[in-house]
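Researcher: Go.
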Amino acid sequence: MFARPCTTARTLTFAGLIAAGSVLSTSSHAALFCATTGDQLASALATADSNGADDEIRVSIGTKTRSSLSDGLTRWSYVEAGTDVTKALILTGGWDSSCTLRFPSPPTFLDAQLGGPALDIRLGTNSQASVQVSGFDILRGYTADSFAFSGFRLQSTGINSPLIVIDRVRVRNSGSDGDNTAIVALELRTGGLTFRNSQVSQNRSYSAAAVVLSTTGNGQINFVNNSVIDNTDSVPTSAGPVGGVSAFGSGTLTLYNNLLYDNTSVRSVDLSIENGVGLLSNNHIGILSGTPDANSGRTSGDPKITFNNSWYPMLAADSLLRDSGSTFVPGGAGSEDIRGQQRIQGAKIDRGAIEFESMFASGFE
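Model: Structure:
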């Protein structure tokens, strides 16, 4: 069944993610979709990538699947056509069934059921689009292909300058059996991409990493306030795998306020970064491979976190991640943590995807 579309004269703004009741405006018309099933979401994405309009896709809470899709095929895909290179895409989860009210929690669950890669967004060669994605929990993506992804990919290899914000996305329980295949792959040639307040955990890669950050040109990737923890590579003979984050390229890579810890592989590396690349500040990194261009405020050791019943890594009251991050960061820190709670609740921002709440001082909800 096709997602419910409607045409509206709203303005698409890039600064800040859409909340219920926001007003969007532009000189052109925008298409608004409400998707309540996995098939409706797939149809909306397929329409939005080539309809020549600014698009907003709202997805209701609950678990979305594509059970009728053949194994090996990507469950949800947006491949930008030439007609849409200057158009915007806003993709958000967490809505009610009528897509008029958005909840801070729970998110929308995209469950690929280990049948194929989960969510793929690919921008065209001449893309100048603005893209916003938020409020999704991506589960059980899988691929056996090499040089691919299994959970989430945002790929922009064009020569122009798109602006991309990925905020409050969780990717877990996904796996790959292909060479050099990531769970989360972020690839940018020009423009800016900010990935923030997100969590990548409990995934298994074969010979790449849980998260791959690649800047092949002069683009800038900002990796801010994320938790990449408890990922693994289960094949001990694979060549040089990284359990956590692998970062490289000729562009600018900034990593601020992240928790990168307890990712196990042959090398058990939490961050592998190309020598002389990367501006790092106030990250908690268990094991670091490579020498970044700058690396201020790094801590290591036990961050004192506990996964709660919802599989969020909760901070203990005495965790050194509390009140220790940079509030002003490249790409902006965002106003909410991954659970939709206020991003700053103490003297300073907490590192990682979760903001500490005093009522949960033990680390449990």
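Model: The two ends are 38 Å apart (CA to CA).
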